[in-house]
From TrEMBL:
<dbReference type="InterPro" id="IPR036220">
    <property type="entry name" value="UDP-Glc/GDP-Man_DH_C_sf"/>
</dbReference>
<keyword id="KW-0560">Oxidoreductase</keyword>
<dbReference type="InterPro" id="IPR028357">
    <property type="entry name" value="UDPglc_DH_bac"/>
</dbReference>
<feature type="domain" description="UDP-glucose/GDP-mannose dehydrogenase C-terminal">
    <location>
        <begin position="314"/>
        <end position="418"/>
    </location>
</feature>
<dbReference type="InterPro" id="IPR036291">
    <property type="entry name" value="NAD(P)-bd_dom_sf"/>
</dbReference>
<dbReference type="InterPro" id="IPR014026">
    <property type="entry name" value="UDP-Glc/GDP-Man_DH_dimer"/>
</dbReference>
<keyword id="KW-0520">NAD</keyword>
<dbReference type="InterPro" id="IPR014027">
    <property type="entry name" value="UDP-Glc/GDP-Man_DH_C"/>
</dbReference>
<dbReference type="InterPro" id="IPR008927">
    <property type="entry name" value="6-PGluconate_DH-like_C_sf"/>
</dbReference>
<dbReference type="Pfam" id="PF03720">
    <property type="entry name" value="UDPG_MGDP_dh_C"/>
</dbReference>
<comment type="similarity">
    <text>Belongs to the UDP-glucose/GDP-mannose dehydrogenase family.</text>
</comment>
<dbReference type="Pfam" id="PF00984">
    <property type="entry name" value="UDPG_MGDP_dh"/>
</dbReference>
<dbReference type="InterPro" id="IPR017476">
    <property type="entry name" value="UDP-Glc/GDP-Man"/>
</dbReference>
<protein>
    <recommendedName>
        <fullName>UDP-glucose 6-dehydrogenase</fullName>
        <ecNumber>1.1.1.22</ecNumber>
    </recommendedName>
</protein>
Amino acid sequence: MRIDMFGDTLCAMVTAAAFAQSGHRVRWWLPPGRVARALDDGRVLYQEPGLAELVTAQRRAGRLDCRTDEPGLADPNGEPAVSEPAPVVCLALQPGDFDRAEHLAAWAGRGGARLLINQSVFPVGSTEQLQTGLREQGAATPVVCLPDTLQEGMALASFTRPHHLLLGCDDREAEVTMRELLRPYNRRRDVLQVMQPREAEFTKVAISGMLATRLSYMNDMALLAEELGVDIDVIRQGVGSDPRIGEAYLYAGCGFGGPGFSRDVMNLTDTLRRRRVGAELLEQVLQINERQKEVLFRKFWRHYDGEVDRRRVTLWGAAFKPGSDRVDNGPALRLIEALWAQGVDVHVHDPLALPELAAWARDKGTLTLHDDPYDAARDSDAMMLVTEWKAYWGPDWDDLKAAMRTPLILDGRNIYDPAYVTRQGFTYYGIGRS
C-alpha cells in the first residue's frame, strides 16, 4: 500500500519506518528543521534503540522515501506541493500544528485519499473536527485516530510489539484498512482496542494522567517515609505486591519529564479547566512533580548548611529517562537552574543527551559537559544521580571516591544500596530513605 506520512515527530519516524519495513511504500514529508537536516546528512536525530538502523535500511531498500527538499510542502499559492495523495495519509505533527493538519486533511480529501490517520497529539475532539471539515467540503475520506502511545527509550519496540493499541474509528471500512495496516503488530493476540475517536484521544491522555498520579503519590509518600525513618523502596514493594495496584510506576524519584508525558497531563488539566470541571487532583500532581525536581538540590543545600556558593556538583544523567536523548521538561533542567541560582559550578555526563542539554543551556548559564562520567566527577563536592542509565548502576566506587573532593552521593532514582555505598566511604542520600 502507498502511504504519505507528514510530520517530524518521533511518532512520525517510527510509524513511517515500521510501515516501510512491512512492505508498504512510504513517502515521508518533513518540514524544514533539525530532523530534516539530519536525514539530509544521512543521520537520524532521534536516538532510539534500533530506529536509526531501520530508517537507514528502509531508505536503502527504496520503501521509505524521505522528502525534505520542499520547505513547507507548499507552492506560492499555499497548496501542498504533492501532486496527489497516497491512498492512506498519516498526520503525526507537532502539538501546535492543527492549522497545518486541517490544510493537509483538505488536500487529502480533495485528492480522494481513502483514509486519513491522525496520530498527532492534539486536544480531545481534534479527529472529529478534521472529519467535520472534510464532510463540509464534500469529501468522503474517513478520519481515524491512532494515538501516539510510544514509550521514549523503547519507541520502536512499543510500536512493533505493543501491549495495546488504541484506535478511534467509527467507520467500518476504515477499521478494516487499519486492521490490515496494523496486522504485523497484532498477531500474537488482539491488542487493538477500537472505540470512538474522541474516546481514544481521551483514553490516551487519561492513561498519562493516571501514571503521573501514581508517581506523584509515591513521591509524597517518600517525603513521609523520610520523616518516619522507613525506606520507601520497601514500602513500594509492599504496595506493588497488592494485585489491585501492581508494581508499575511506583518508584519514588526526582520527578518525571519528557515531551509527551508531561504534555499529556497538562493537556488533560487544560481540558478539565475549559470544561469547567475541577482539575484539582492533576494540578496537585503537577505541583508535586515540580517540587520533586528540586529535591536533590534541597538535600545538597541542607548537607552543606546553605554554604554552596562556588561548590562543584556533578550530574550523572540529563535525559528525562534512560534510552532517550531528550531533556524536555526533565528534572535535570529544574535542578541545574536551582544550582546556577546559588552559584554552583555544574558538570554533567549523559550517554546521549549532551547535545540537547547544550542547546537548552545556551544563553542561560555555564555548563561543563563531559564524555566520561569520572572526569565529570573530578573535584566535585557532590554527585547527583538524575537518570538511571544502566552504565551508572555499577560504578567503580574506588575511582569515583578518588576523583571526588567530597564523597557525597545524592541518588535521585534510588538505584544504589545505601548501606553498601556507605561502606565504600560515601555519604549517601536517596529519595524517601532515612
